[in-house]
């Protein structure tokens, strides 16, 4: 057989003169107490779906008995003030709780936006990385093709293909131009006579003197 532990209650004796200042529990406090009990009863009933009616009846009886006892309950004056302010304190707590929930909701929205931005940046970086890899591969392919065309070995030396012998033995540009001019020997003689003539020399000397004087004028102006 199990033993039942009885909790001993300590009684506190108060002087009769101290009870004279006590006051009945105000109606607002009783109404607030009733308001607090309603959600508690509903929560208890939600956990007892099988014996819902029986439990509901029992809880209502307990509630009525408690409220009846509170009607005749005497409490110290300072306790009356505390109980009167309970409703206001609860309203303040609910308002603060609502403000906290709204703040948390806004914070969650900001966090979601930041996460979305980070994910977008990550996708952009990955896309850019893929493009860089593609371009790098293309550059390497082009370099390899260029090496094959220019025949560059591993040491960096350039090997160009040899020119054909026909290109080395071909006529020069001056020779090709002279072939287009008839009477080449006569033209060359005339040019030589003109270059060595006194008129040409005088004209060249005139140009030299003119340039010297222009340089002198520029220096004076400076």
Any key phrases for this structure?
centromere; 2 strands; single chain; coiled coil; chromosome; 8 helices
From the spread of the alpha carbons, the general shape counts as rod-shaped
Spatial arrangement of strands, main beta sheet: 1-2
Tell me the Rg in angstroms. 57 Å
Report the sheet with the most strands, covering strand number, pairing sense and barrel closure.
2 strands, antiparallel
How many helices? The count is: 8
- What is the number of beta strands? 2
Class of secondary structure makeup:
mainly alpha
Distance between the termini: 129 Å
What's the pLDDT, averaged over the residues? Answer: 76
How do the SSEs run, as a string of H and E? HEHHEHHHHH
Low-confidence stretches: none
- Helical percent range? over 70%
* Percent in strands: under 5%
Keywords: Centromere, Chromosome, Coiled coil, Nucleus
Subcellular location: Chromosome, Centromere; Nucleus
Family: Belongs to the CENP-Q/OKP1 family.
GO cellular component, one term: chromosome, centromeric region
